[in-house]
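Form P-L/3: holo structure prediction, ligand zinc ion.
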Amino acid sequence: MKRLLAIAATLAFSLFSANSQAAEKLKLLIVDGQNNHNWKATTPILQEFLNRCGRFEVSVTTTPPNKSPAEAWNDFRPKFAGFQVVLSNYNGELWPEPVQRDLEKFVGAGGGLVIVHAANNAFEQWSDFNKMIGLGWRGNGFGDRITTNDAGEIVRTPKGQGPGAGHGPQHEFTIRLRDTAHPVVKGMPAEWLHTKDELYHGQRGPAADMHLIATAFSDSAKGGTGAHEPMIWWIPYGKGRVFTTVMGHETYSMKCVGFQSVVARGSEWSATGQVTLPIPESFPTAEKTNSAP
Ligand code: ZN
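OUTPUT (holo model):
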């Protein structure tokens, strides 16, 4: 009888652990609430594809609107430590000091941080945020600029020289991998066509310990700089990994299967240092974009 009980207990235990493993999703927090972009339409897209891939349990925290009275911010105290990764879809007023310190503590202790498009426009005056993102939407006097030459070699342009942040008219453009072995992009085509988006150029910042993963050629004929501009990169901050993509201007830019794969895999990697999510069969090719339904 004792033996039978022991077997039953073992069986129950292994069933339980198999179950809990299957259910073990990464807790991801999207922050939004202010943006010069349509965050009320883009957050649901982020939520949808991050949930759909099955790897995340997605929550959203929304700041008070622009120009709220100071008291309105007293309730904005996200519990970053309860998550594995924070994704910013926020470009607006500076967060209260305690929230800034909490995010620094969270990433410093190994938490993941993912920056999407205009999220890198925010917080020019927050020094550690600039360290985390490396490059932000800033004027050319703010910091260095990073591009690559045609051979893919990193070119660092000192502050004060060359263009500051900008973009030409929106168009489809080619994402070119510069670190094909990086877990987030490993197995993706070396070049793939992204759906219509803003091609950011002249991003500026300290760009220290910056690991460039992908670029796009910013064509002078299309309002660009004639240089290969950073599109995807990461920066270590304490024990954490900060993953940035400047793609994602509008809903149609975020529908790109390539964008979604980059953000989902980037979020997983930022949180864990590993990528288990497969690259979808419908991934864009060098010649053809592909949008999720
Ligand atoms: Zn934009």
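COMMENT: The chain has a mean pLDDT of 94.
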